[in-house]
Specification:
- The protein is rod-shaped.
- A three-stranded antiparallel sheet has the order 1-2-3.
- Helix 3 crosses helix 4.
- By secondary structure, it is mainly α.
- It is built from four helices and three strands, in the order E-E-E-H-H-H-H.
């Protein structure tokens, strides 16, 4: 089994034989790290014990084949980490293993005194194995109680997590509304940013126009001077116009007088012409009479 950190304060591992996934929650990340390290140490120790037990079992099997007797294969020490049903049957399996080993030793001892020393050594080795298996059985029993407590805590943690999930699902609707509101606000912010950009561009144009104001002021002053000069010129022209108008009136009055005098002169001239014409006619008559 492999312990996996699923978050900063939670870890889990799977037992494929029991088809079960276990999980633990911790109050801090340091506790989770310490548990993961201890889990790995226990895993390596169990593997080492299983390898040693397997070597002893293979040695015993080789000895039994030499004596031409069929001896059942002893279960491996890995059963220490088995399921709850396997853990419940471990004492009986260990007692059966020890009984079979003792029967085999007695049977082999009866074959002859030549194998006595060898089987005494085997007996000592089996005694050591028995002691180690007893210790492993005790540790396994303690671990079972410990893991039962851990399982109960995991169930409680699972119930709390389920309640938390229900609360989170209740908050999910609020989160959706908040998300929609944030979306609307984001759209408004983008529109405002676009308006700000336009205003900044307009402000930049105004700044450029402001830089032209001194030139415009100078032009305005120049125009004012020209306007003043034009007004003065206009006044002078008005004065001249008034003078010309008065002169024209006088000329018209003089022309009127001249026309009257000319008319009277023409009338006099017509009279004189008539008199001259009469005088010519008189002369003509006188010439005809002569």
């Amino acid at each position: 089994m492999t312990f996996t950190k699923t978050s900063q304060k939670f870890g889990q591992w799977a037992d494929s034989r029991a088809n079960t996934v276990f999980g633990l929650g911790f109050s801090s990340e340091q506790h989770l790290t310490k548990f993961a390290e201890k889990f790995q140490e226990v895993k390596e120790a169990a593997k080492l014990a299983r390898d040693r037990s397997q070597e002893k079992t293979e040695t015993s099997s080789n000895h039994s084949r030499e004596s031409s007797h069929e001896i059942p294969t002893s279960p491996q020490a890995s059963s220490v980490n088995g399921t709850d049903d396997e853990k419940a049957t471990r004492p009986a399996a260990i007692e059966t293993l020890l009984k079979n080993d003792n029967d085999r030793i007695k049977l082999v001892s009866a074959q002859g005194s030549t194998a006595t020393n060898k089987w005494e050594q085997e007996l000592q080795s089996l005694g050591e194995n028995n002691a180690r298996l007893s210790i492993a059985l005790q540790e396994s029993t303690n671990n079972v109680e410990h893991w039962k407590k851990q399982l109960l805590e995991c169930k409680e943690e699972g119930d709390r997590l389920r309640q938390k999930i229900v609360e989170l699902e209740g908050q999910c609707a609020d989160f959706t509304e908040e998300k929609e509101r944030n979306t609307r606000l984001s759209r408004i912010v983008k529109e405002l940013e676009a308006d700000i950009n336009e205003k900044e561009q307009e402000l930049e144009r105004l700044r450029e126009d402001v830089q032209l104001i001194p030139q415009l002021m100078e032009q305005c002053e120049d125009l004012q001077k020209r306007l003043q000069a034009a007004e003065n010129t206009n006044k002078e022209l008005e004065n001249k116009t008034k003078s010309l108008k008065s002169n024209i009136e006088e000329s018209r009055h003089k022309q009127g007088n001249l026309k009257k005098e000319l008319t009277s002169f023409l009338e006099v001239l017509d009279g004189k012409i008539d008199e001259l014409h009469g005088f010519r006619q008189g002369l003509a008559k006188l010439g005809m009479d002569n």
